[in-house]
Amino acid sequence: MPPAHLAGWMMVGSGMAHATVNAIFKAGGSDKMSGRAMIDGSSALLVLPLAFVVPWPTGAGWWLAASLAAHLVYLTCLVRAFSLADMSAVYPVMRGSAPVIAAVASVMVLGDAITPAIVLGIAGVTIGTVLVAARNAPPLHALGWALATGATIAAYTVIDARGVRAAPATISYVVWDFMATGIGIGGFFALRRGREFVAAARTQWRAGLGAGALSIVSYGLALGAYRMGNLARLAALRETSIVFGLVIAVVFLHERVNRTRAAGAALIALGAGVLIILG
């Protein structure tokens, strides 16, 4: 399989795992900050043994620091958005607003090429996302947080794509990225919640551990793909998570879907197909 096609399918797998992580997060207790601390802390614990054997990410240190800052803002916005509205309302907004921003930034920062097929595929994903969100638009206070989440997704996507390309090996950047996020952000969130975090951990640690493992799969696949291919194309492909997230929201979270949102999901899938085959 050509590297570009392999990278594309890696992003689809990443999107599926990412939607599952967010469904677990949304379905958890009402204390979203504690839930996020458990997920990120679990990821750090799971990759900790690898930190002793993988090479130090020489050349990527500043990118890791920038990624940590971007993820702190991202997770803060994510927690607020999920606390204020249904997953099916805010998830498409936050994920769908990111590809266009990331595509522009990838050209300006990374020098990646934009072909007509990539533009067509991104357009399909973006328009499909608008349709998914249109009939179940979140309230304005939740919409603002969802859009802010999308902007920070684009920011950390570009930062991490640059960082993983600068590191000596993909696994090196993956391990230290999860270590930094888990210890820095997971620890910060846990300290902020204090006793509430301890109480939540007693009942939700299994879900947190499972979601933490899936987070490694999801973003590990994404980082590996970013090292191999065009970021604009790959960032849009990861938004197939919207389709998986919509299915999960309906089947497992018992949220409602209408024809417009179903049509939007189909358009997202069509755009992804263009990106995989022609991008």
Walkthrough of the structure:
The chain is an all-alpha fold and 279 residues long. The protein has one domain. The protein has twelve helices and no strands. It has helices at residues 3-27, 32-47, 61-84, 87-96, 98-110, 116-134, 140-166, 170-193, 195-228, 231-238, 241-251, 259-277. α3 crosses α8 (170-193), α5 (98-110) packs antiparallel against α10 (231-238) and α10 (231-238) runs antiparallel to α12. The longest helix is centred in the last third of the chain and has 34 residues, at 195-228. The mean pLDDT is 85.
Distance between the first and last residues' Cα: 15 Å
| Topology, number of strands | 0
How many structural domains in the coordinates?
1
* Contiguous runs where pLDDT drops below 50 for at least 5 residues: none
The helix fraction, in percent, is over 70%
> Helix and strand succession?
HHHHHHHHHHHH
User: Which structural class should the secondary elements be placed in?
Assistant: mainly alpha
Residue-averaged pLDDT, rounded? 85
Number of helices: 12
Bin the strand percentage.
Answer: under 5%
Which overall shape is indicated by the principal axes computed on the Cα atoms? globular
Rg of Cα set: 18 Å
- Major sheet: size, sense and barrel closure? none
